[in-house]
Amino acid sequence: MLSSARTAHHADVVVVGASLAGLSAAQHLISSGVTVTVLESGPRPGGRMTTDAVDGFLLDRTGQLLNTSFPELIRTPGLEALKLRPFSPGVLVHTDGRNHRTGELRGAKRAFTTARAFAAARASRSAGLDQARLGAALARLAALPIDRMLARPDRPTSTTLATRGLPARTVEGFLRPLLASLLSDPDLTTSSRCADLVLRGYARGRLCLPAGGAGIIPDLLAAQLPPETVRTGVHAKAVGTTAVDTAEHGEITCRSVVVATGARSAAELIPGLRLPGFHPVTVLHHAADEPPLRDASLILTGTRRGPVAHTTVASEVDPDRAPAGEALITSTVLGAAAGLPTAELDRAARAQLARVYGTSASRWRLLAAHHDPDAVPAMPAPHDVRRPVRLLSGLYVCGDHRDTSTVQGALFSGRRAAQAVLRDLGVRPGQGQALRAA
Ligand SMILES: Cc1cc2nc3c(=O)[nH]c(=O)nc-3n(C[C@H](O)[C@H](O)[C@H](O)COP(=O)(O)OP(=O)(O)OC[C@H]3O[C@@H](n4cnc5c(N)ncnc54)[C@H](O)[C@@H]3O)c2cc1C
Fold it and tell me: Computed from CA positions of residues 34, 35, 41, 43, in that sequence, does the dihedral angle turn out positive or negative?
């Protein structure tokens, strides 16, 4: 599998891929005294979590929805300086020509965005009861031990929504659009176990954006590594248990290899590794002279009358993302619509966003449209949320496709891979001793 080219470099462990999983693995290995080289084919670390600076705007290539309850955002060494900007509590759901707030975690209480919405809710005696039931269901989920949740039968999410004891209005008006957005899966074919996990996360924390763009997370992780640990512009062509063959520098020898490349490249490097399906996503960034809504809310549209699944005035959530005096509107398109040609998608999205924000979007500037056909690995039922990361002694694989297809899953898979490497090398995690002495 490996070429016989000369040895250019040696490290205890070579990690292939410098995004969340690879950098998380490197952090854990280095803090245990293991020497690491991280190879990255791109010009900078970050992978799918890259943020581009355009005309003073910070534009994520992902439609990033993080949650303050993601444990790895707190536990991963190097992320201490990460600032999370929460969305307003709950979400706004756009239905029947108006936005109403729902999904707040305050039991039966709810907040209304307009007096008209309040009057409408009072007129409907059932609305308050629906909110109370939803609040109670979310509170139960937040308190449910993770083991009990993972022991539930695993079925396609779309078939289980009706069994959650909530009225159809709440399922269709809140649960379905929320889960579609959090899972990047408009048809909800995703495993109900994964849906429960993300819903539990929603119930335990607040949806948020990373301050300064998604790319800040890999940047913080990379900055904590010893100088020259990450080598960019180096493409791994083949991997074994003791070496990596690269296009640019020949063979790099080592004692263990961790493949942290994303599912498609991992399947190319490791014959026989299962290739999952993917959910495509397109992220649209528009600039406006003023915010169409002065509110840091996430708005779910449920893609009922247009291609956009969710949208937000990103500069109201995280002011660092737009220059002074301008606003950034970030919208996410899921499913088949994500594959539409950019001009067509932009036209349809503007018409929908004009209705959602109650203002004309014709003068907005399209700053970027990022399409990724492999954005999110699919997680159909039954889904193992702890896929093995150790393939052989000396060969390991991590990335969101080994766990859940989220930032949390990618970071956690890196931790698990590092632990497996350390076990095989006979090094105790965190002991910080030089491996040479082992
Ligand atoms: C549009 C979009 C929206 C998303 N929305 C959300 C969301 O709302 N919430 C959420 O939690 N997650 C979301 N995600 C998923 C999240 O971004 C990923 O789970 C996470 O970034 C995966 O990190 P990773 O390290 O596993 O893989 P990647 O980020 O894919 O990193 C793999 C790295 O390996 C490098 N590489 C590949 N092949 C080679 C090779 N042969 N040699 C050297 N280097 C190589 C790549 O250049 C890349 O840097 C979204 C993703 C996208 C694209």
Answer: positive
Residues 6+ apart with CB under 8 A from 349: 284, 306, 307, 308, 331, 333
Top mean-pLDDT range of 99-103, 137-141, 311-315: 311-315
Q: Indicate the domain borders of the chain.
A: 7-49+215-277+382-437, 51-86+209-214+278-377, 91-205
Q: In 318-406, where does DSSP find H-type helix?
A: 342-357
CA–centroid distance, residue 112 to ligand 1 (Å): 37
Does the Cβ of 235 fall within 6 Å of ligand 1? Answer: yes
The helix/strand/coil state of 171 is helix
Q: Return the number of other C-beta atoms located less than 10 Å from residue 391's C-beta.
A: 16
- CATH assignment of 7-49+215-277+382-437, among 3.40.50.970, 1.20.1300.10, 2.60.40.1120, 3.50.50.60: 3.50.50.60
CA 364 to centroid of ligand 1, rounded, Å: 29
Cα–Cα distance measured from residue 232 to residue 313, given in angstroms and rounded to the nearest whole number: 33
Buried b (16+ CB within 10 A) or exposed e, 52-71: eeeeebbbbbbbbbbbebbe
Q: What pLDDT, in 10s, does the model give residues 330-344?
A: 999 999 999 999 999
Phi, psi (rounded to 5 degrees) for 132: -65, -45
48 C-alpha to ligand 1 centroid (Å): 4
Q: What crossing angle do the helices spanning 192-204 and 176-183 adopt, rounded to 10°? A: 100
Residue 303: pLDDT band with limits 50, 70, 90: low
